[in-house]
Amino acid sequence: MKTSDFYFDLPKELIAQDPLEDRSASRLLVLNKDTGKTEHRVFREITDYLHPGDCLVINDTKVIPARLIGSRVGTDAKIEILLLKRMEKDVWETLAKPGKKARPGTKISFGDGLLVGEVLSVAEDGNRLVRFTYEGIFEEILDRLGQMPLPPYITHQLKDRNRYQTVYAKHDGSAAAPTAGLHFTPELLSAIRKKGVRIAHVTLHVGLGTFRPVKVEDVTEHHMHSEFYMVEEEQAELINRTKKEGGKIVCVGTTSCRTVESAADESGILHPGSGWTDIFIYPGYRFKILDELITNFHLPESTLLMLVSALAGKENIEKAYAEAIRERYRFFSFGDAMLIR
To answer: From CA 337, how far away is CA 24, in angstroms rounded?
Structure first.
């Protein structure tokens, strides 16, 4: 299986640069994974496809303002740091640009010294380990100095940082939003609950590896980035009970999907716990928990496109994406949505 098999040509103007004013007003392409048939709806009509006894699984991670712009101490040289993963209390794995200015021993000042980072080491993949020193509470300083780490294909400035956050975001830790969840409003979630649909929370802190291109031609040789996940006992019980009673497990986004598939055993039982997952789902994978998926439209040759192809079939996804392009759907993080059922 080749990475190039997952390429498609996307007109640049279909990359959504701004979120819609009404989150739930996005378009929704519904794909039947068995027949390949499609329907065109509005996202708030997702309730028509959810039934009493089903369980909607959402990722309640919260995006931190992980993009910091500072200068090398003693110079005017600008350095951008992107927080990826907290290794210990004040030590983070980061991306640094330009890397040549962030050698071990380099000190970087942010906010006129309110926060200072020292590069400790350089990892094999070029990421930097940085130790931060400061007075006060790190999260409060980050909230003051940091910017939302929007994907590189979004060039517009985000006016309201909450629009790159789900309405149910709870646990700080993501370097990117679980974007399928951006379509939900409190009112829509309330309507879903009133219909008798259960809602389960899991947590997966999304890393920027989500946006990294697959650089090997043989898909099976790609090494996934690892991400931290948590599944609470009560939530695992809710999902397992739904499966046992014959309800559908509908995951909101590939992050929720990767979480439940990582925490499940081969017999399809979801286990509570936390840890790191580098699960890579591509065609040939057998899903253990997930039945249906709510997702956005993904980048060509991406691991996320491979995941949805594993669920719906590569040919069905190719046809659905071609139809979405013809119908001028909006793509990627702030774009429209897809329900694979």
So the answer is: 10
What letters, b where the CB count within 10 A reaches 16 and e where it falls short, cover 32-58?
A: ebeeeebeeeebbebeebbeeebbbbb
- Best CA proximity match to 258, nearest among 219, 209, 214: 209
Mean pLDDT on 107-114: 94
pLDDT in tens, 233-251: 999 999 999 999 999 999 9
User: Cα separation of 199 and 47, whole Å?
Assistant: 13
Contact 252, 292 (CB under 8 A): no
Those residues whose C-beta lies under 8 Å from the C-beta of residue 2, and which sit 6 or more positions away, are 217, 218, 219
The dihedral built from the CA positions of residue 189, 194, 195 and 200, taken in this order, carries a sign that is: positive
Round to whole Å and give the CA distance between 251 and 180.
Answer: 10
Q: Mean of the pLDDT values across residues 92-109?
A: 92
Phi and psi at 47, nearest 5°, equal -60, -25
Closest Cα to residue 227, out of 55, 58, 61?
A: 61
pLDDT tens digits, one per residue of 172-210? 999 899 999 999 999 999 999 999 999 999 999 998 776
Tokens of 337: 């949505």
Provide the sign of the torsion angle of the four alpha carbons 152, 154, 158, 161, taken in this order.
negative
Specify the length of the chain in residues.
341
- Residues 323, 169: contact at Cβ < 8 Å? no
Asked whether the bond before 213 is cis by omega within 30 degrees of 0, the reply is no
Domains in the chain: ranges and CATH: 3-63+160-340 (3.40.1780.10), 67-145 (2.40.10.240)
Position 14, amino acid: L
> Hunting for tokens 């390429």 — which residue is that?
7
From CA 1, how far away is CA 214, in angstroms rounded? 13
d(CA 340, CA 28) in angstroms, rounded, equals 10
Question: Cα(150)–Cα(327) distance, rounded to whole angstroms?
Answer: 26
pTM (2 decimals)?
A: 0.91
Rg of the chain over CA atoms, in angstroms? 20
49 DSSP 8-state letter: G
